[in-house]
Description:
Elements: E1 2-6, E2 9-11, E3 32-34, H1 36-51, E4 55-61, H2 67-76, E5 80-84, H3 94-108, E6 113-117, H4 128-136, E7 140-150, E8 154-160, E9 165-171, E10 174-178, H5 190-196, E11 202-204, H6 245-258
Parallel strand pairs: 1-4, 1-6, 4-5, 5-11, 6-10, 7-10
Antiparallel strand pairs: 2-3, 7-8, 8-9
Helix pairs in contact: 2-5, 3-4
Amino acid sequence: MNITVCIKQVPSTSEVEIDEKTGNLKRDGVDSKINPYDLFAIEEAIRLKERIEASVSVLTMGPPQAEEVLQESFTLGADKGFLITDRKCAGADVLATAKALAEGIKKIGNADLIICGKQTTDGDTAQVGAEIAEFLDIPHANNILEVKQIKESSIVVDFDLPTMVQTVEIQLPCLISLDKDINQPRLPSYKLKKKTQNKKIITFGVDDFEDPDDSKYGMNGSVTQVVRIFPPESNEETETWEGNAEELSERITQKILELKIV
C-alpha cells in the first residue's frame, strides 16, 4: 500500500504579524513547526505501515524552508518527502491549496490512501482534505476515530458524527481526515534523525503539474478573499465579587446577559 500524508508548516507562536493589504500571515523570520493535527496523520500512517506492507510519503506546500517539516517527518518514520515550492502558489486560499496538493499527489503517483489532519492551526478551515479528494475524484471521510480494518481494495473506519459513531467501508483509493482522538503521536527518533539527515527531498512546482494552468493556483486561483483579519483583542480587566451563592449566581447570570454570551 502507498500512503501519502499531507502536512503543513505553521507558525509555532500566536504572535504573528498580518499583512494588512493581502490578509496573509507574515511568516518570514517566524519559528515554525509541523501543524499539530498533522502529527496524528503521520502517526496513523506509520502505524498502518507497521500493520501491513506499506510505504509512507509526506507532501507539503510552502517556501524552501518547509523542507524542515519533511525532515522531521523522516524522524517519525516516513519514507519519502515531497515539497511543492513555487511563488505561483503563494497566497492560496483553501481551494487553490487543495488544487495544488491534489496535483502534487498525482505527480507522486500511485497513492492508495491519503491521510490529512483535521485542520491547521493557522487557517482552521478543516476544508482542504475534502477538497483534495474532490479534485482527485475519490471517496473521502472526515473525523476518523479509528482505522479498524485494511482490506485488499478498501478500508473500514469509524468516524464521528454529531450524534453517533458510524462504521463505514471505503473503497481505495480514498482520503481520510483525522481528529486528535485517534492516537498519540510518537516522539522523533534520534536514530532515524542520524540515518535520514541527508535523505533527499523531491521538489517540484506548478510547471511540473499535470495541469500547469497558472490561473488555478495561488492568489490567481483563490475564489475567496480575506476582507479583514486581526488578532483578538486582549482584556486583562478583572472583577472580584463577594456574596453568598444566591447573590453570586444572580450576578453571574446578569453578566452573561450583559456580555450577550447567551
